[in-house]
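Lecture notes, part 5. Sequence design as translation. It can be helpful to think of inverse folding as translation between two languages: the language of shapes and the language of residues. The source text, in structure tokens, appears below.
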């Protein structure tokens, strides 16, 4: 087995792919799967699986208008992991989609 050339710091991220997809849909409910995939650096197939997961869990739904989908988030839905108990999808998205970056801390 060959060693992984990727530095250890680059092997994890703060957000899951599910969160990234949710953020893109929150920014544009009429966004195409192709555009979500491009923004999130995922395949279209992966995005479709994530959307299906989010719909099955009740975090979003969609309607079809011709060949396009329009998504509807369920803002009052609570986050599903026990460690994240309490906040809603709306609260998560508010933190991830608005406001300027915080000032750096002097350490």
């Amino acid at each position: 087995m060959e060693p992984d050339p990727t530095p250890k710091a680059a092997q994890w991220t703060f957000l899951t792919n599910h969160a990234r997809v949710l953020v893109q849909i929150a920014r544009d409910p009429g966004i195409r799967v192709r555009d979500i995939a491009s923004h999130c650096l995922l395949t279209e197939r992966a995005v479709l699986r994530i959307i299906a997961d989010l719909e099955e869990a009740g975090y979003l739904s969609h309607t079809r208008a011709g060949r396009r989908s329009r998504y509807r988030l369920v803002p009052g839905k609570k986050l599903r992991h026990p460690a994240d108990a309490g906040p809603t999808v709306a609260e998560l998205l508010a933190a991830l989609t608005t406001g300027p970056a915080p000032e750096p801390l002097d350490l």
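The translated text above is only one of many valid answers, since several sequences can fold into similar shapes. The chain has one domain: 15-96.
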